[in-house]
Write the C-alpha cells for this entry.
Amino acid sequence: MNTNKTNSVKIVSKAASRLFLLRQFKRACSEQNELLCFYRTCIRPVAEYACQAYHNSLPAYLSDDLERIQCRALRIIYPFCSYREALTLSDLTSLKSRRQSLTTRLFKKILEDPNHNLHGLLPPMNETIRSLRQKRTFSIPRCKTKRYQSSLSLRMPSL
C-alpha cells in the first residue's frame, strides 16, 4: 500500500472518530447551529487536510469514504433530512466539489504569481499559432506513469 493511500485512510479514520464527539454534543442537547459549527471547525478540516495535493489522484472509494463522513455528520445534525436537503440547510457543498474548488484556487494562485514557490514547477506554456477547439494553457508533456498523469499541474491545463 503506497503512502498516499495510507495517509488518506488515516484521514478518513480520524474524521470518523470525531463523529463520536458530535454525537455526544447532540446527546447533550446542543443546538443545530452549534453542532454545525463543531463540524465545520473540527471534522471538516481533518477531511480536507492537504486536499490540494491529493485530490486529483484520490481513488473513488476514498473520495466516497470522505463524502460518507460528511453525510453521517449531517445526518446527526439534521436527522430527518436527506443529504441534499441537509447540504442546502447547512449552506455546505459536497466535499468533492469543495476539494475541486480549493485545488483550482491554489492552481490559479500559483499560475498568476510568478514569485510563488511552486510556479517554477509548472510545465512550459503552450504557444500555438493555430486556433484550436480546446485551447490548452500548457503543452502537455509525455506521461509515463498514471501518477504523473493525474498530478495537479497536468489536470488543470484548461484554466
Summary: Residues 3-27 form the longest helix (25 residues).
